[in-house]
Amino acid sequence: MKNLRLTDIASELNLSVTTVSKALKNYPDVSNKTKKRVKEYAQKMNFKPNSFAAYLRTQESKIIGVVIPRLNHFFFSDIIKGIIKAAEKESYMVIVLSSEESYELECKQVNRLIQHNVDGILLSIADSTHDVSHLSQLIEQKIPLVMFDKYSKLTTCSTVVINDQDAAFRAVEHLIKKGRRNIAHFRGPLLPQNSIDRFLGFRRALDEYGLKYRKEWVFTCDEISSEEGYRYTEEILKSHPEIDAIFAVADMPAVGAIKCLNTHNIPIPERIAVMGFSNWKISELITPSLSTIDQPGSLMGQKAFEIFYEELQNKKKNIPIKHQQITLNTDLIERESTN
Amino acid sequence: MKNLRLTDIASELNLSVTTVSKALKNYPDVSNKTKKRVKEYAQKMNFKPNSFAAYLRTQESKIIGVVIPRLNHFFFSDIIKGIIKAAEKESYMVIVLSSEESYELECKQVNRLIQHNVDGILLSIADSTHDVSHLSQLIEQKIPLVMFDKYSKLTTCSTVVINDQDAAFRAVEHLIKKGRRNIAHFRGPLLPQNSIDRFLGFRRALDEYGLKYRKEWVFTCDEISSEEGYRYTEEILKSHPEIDAIFAVADMPAVGAIKCLNTHNIPIPERIAVMGFSNWKISELITPSLSTIDQPGSLMGQKAFEIFYEELQNKKKNIPIKHQQITLNTDLIERESTN
DNA sequence: CTGAAAGCGCTTACAG
DNA sequence: CTGAAAGCGCTTACAG
Question: What are the start and end residues of each CATH 3.40.50.2300 domain in chain A?
Answer without folding.
Answer: 62-161+297-329, 164-294
